[in-house]
Design goal:
heterodimer, A: alpha+beta, Ubiquitin-like (UB roll), DNA polymerase, domain 1, 2 domains, 5-stranded mixed β-sheet, 5 helices, 33% helix, 17% strand, B: alpha+beta, Uridine Diphospho-n-acetylenolpyruvylglucosamine Reductase, domain 2, Uridine Diphospho-n-acetylenolpyruvylglucosamine Reductase, domain 3, Enolase-like, domain 1, 3 domains, 5-stranded antiparallel β-sheet, globular
Chain lengths: 159, 292
Amino acid sequence: MSNEIQLKTTINGIEYDLTVPARLLASDFLRDNLNLTGTHVGCEHGICGSCTIKIDGLTARSCLKFAVQLDGKKVETVESFKEKPETRNILEKFKAHHSLQCGFCTPGFLMIIDELLKSKIKFSENEIREALSGNLCRCTGYENIIKAAKEILAHKGIK
Amino acid sequence: MKPSDFKYFRANSLDHALDILNSEENVKIIAGGQSLVPLMNFRLGQPDLLLDINDIKDLNFESESSSSLEIGSLLTHTNAINSNLIKLFFPIISYALKYVAHQTIRNQGTLGGSIVNADPSSEWPLLISLLNAKINVRNKFKEREILVNDFFESHFVTNVEDDEIVTSVTLPKINKYCWAFEEHSSRKGDFAIVETGVILELEDNCETIKNARIAIGGVDEKIIRLEKIEKKFTGKNIYEDLSIYKKLDLFEAINPVNDNHGSIDYKNYLSDSLLKKVLKKCVKARVISNVK
């Protein structure tokens, strides 16, 4: 029981073993301690979705997790997207549909779309809109993001 | 927007967690953290010790007996939505939990966390109220069972003591019933302004109401059961027009406040129209029968 906790975690396939303050948010840990600045910090209370990462395969707001809670977990951040063909495809579709301007919200959208892609069920256009409604974008407008998402998910079949 | 300093401990057994709750001061339990961490980030909550219970396997289960389902407090909303056992006996849970925030939040948020947070516009509190749940809690020395009527005390206040952990919730099975749930919020995923659920327990003919249960949330300091209306529905046929209840029986039971989501008048109007909507939907719904 301490204010400083030892943490062993795997992030984008790399193992880390560090001691961090208990109060350190996972989002700050990724950005400040590991220099993985692709995870963006917007509202810091779970509303905007910009800091979305994956913990053991499920999306999570990294501003609502403490770094110490990543102990023993497998974490994926947006930096992992360029490594694998299926996630690289998500990036390419975003580029093709001009689904970003400033790019601040983009990492969160990419994470949630990847989660939809890996789930077993098919989605209707409304369900895609609904799934993306947990992430806020303030400049691109959502239409191009939805266009990209629809194309990314198209090979699963749209309901 | 950063939490204040605290000590952290992750318990891997319930006994260990209860020992800590018994010996330490100003401890906060963290499960999904989807309501707690925002409060800590705003420094509205400043625990000295954060007790992480996520590794306690005994709190993450679903089990069925002849008369009830028991759900461990660590079950996430996503896992509850996907649970075949829950879908079979209480499809209202799978349906209503889709209204909880967004998928990313549902992946992390838990049953236990939601009910001890006791937000009167949340879905789980309404569901356990409607399902006449029993909440099982434990401290270092004993277990006790709290009836849902005694569980919620006010906004964010429950009957659970500081040294206790909610271990599970028991949901008594219902023999023959139909159900409906609706809520209204400004945007998809926001907290409900008003939410309402109904369960009509039916006689063997699947038409006569044996027992009605109606719960409404967002319009008082806790979830309200509309007992007056429930009682008057007993013995009625579900094909009668149930929407002709006495409005005063509704308005006298609830106590909405003026806030940035709407005026008292608006919330009264919304309560009435949502209640009519769920009643209509309920009688058209498929009757669930658990007799095997």
